[in-house]
Design a protein that fits this description.
Elements: E1 3-9, H1 14-32, E2 40-46, E3 52-53, E4 56-57, H2 58-61, E5 66-73, H3 79-97, E6 105-111, E7 117-118, E8 121-122, H4 123-131
């Protein structure tokens, strides 16, 4: 189901990574109603001197940022769910990492069920076979 790639500005910090992953997992379950047991999160840290907004580094701006990409199955959430998720991610990451630049993004990519899957099976196949049970 969801595959989440989170980039956060700053130096690598395992404790912060764990906190961020737990919070993103919680929001993904509560707001988008996704199953935690099939939610994958990858997280990477990007030094502030290598992250730029309008050609100015975050180090120069003395702020932080994040970029979250999440892939979900197409048509499994309402527009209002997705809007709530984007807002909740932004607010939660502000509370966890601090002073966040306003140009910090959350992108929800909706994947067609016949072109996305896990265990070597498409989501479409899983839907069809679960309906037969």
């Amino acid at each position: 189901m969801p595959i989440i790639d989170l980039k956060v500005s700053g130096e690598e910090n395992p404790a912060l990574a764990q906190e961020l992953v737990k919070e993103i997992g919680r929001l993904t379950k509560e707001v988008l109603n996704k199953k935690p047991e099939v939610t994958v999160v990858t997280l990477s840290f990007v030094p502030e001197h290598l992250w730029f907004v309008n050609a100015v580094s975050l180090a120069e701006l003395k702020t932080k940022s994040f970029h979250l990409n999440i892939k979900i199955s197409d048509s499994t959430n309402l527009k209002t769910d997705k809007a709530k998720y984007i807002e909740a991610v932004h607010q939660s990451l502000i509370s966890i990492i601090g002073d966040v630049h306003p140009v910090s993004y959350t992108a929800i990519h909706e994947m067609k069920a016949d072109a996305y899957g896990y265990e070597g099976l498409t989501i479409e196949y899983k839907i069809i076979t679960n309906q037969k049970k």
